[in-house]
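Progress report, Aim 2. The chain analyzed during this reporting quarter is listed below.
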Amino acid sequence: MMDSKRRETLLIIAAVACVALLAGDRLVLTPLGRVWKTRSVRIADLKTSVEKGEILLDRLDDLEKRWGKHARRATVLSYPRLRKGS
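Predicted C-alpha cells for the chain:
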C-alpha cells in the first residue's frame, strides 16, 4: 500500500499540473487561437484583394483605352475650339 505521505505528494503534483494546464490554456492557447483566427481572416481578405487586382491588371489595356477615349471626348466637349473642323 501507498503511504499517506507519498499519496499526498502525488495529489499535490497532480493538482499543480492541472492548475498549470488550465493556466496554460487560458493564458497561451486561447489568445493564440484568437490571433490565428484573426490572421486567417486577414489572409483571406488579402487573397481576395490580390485576385481583384489581378483582374484589374488583366483589363488594364482596355480600361486605359476607354479612359483615354472618354477623357478626349470630355476635353473636346469642354473646349469647342478643339473640335475637328472648327
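Residues 4-58 form the longest helix (55 residues). The mean pLDDT is 87. These observations will guide the mutagenesis work planned for the next reporting period.
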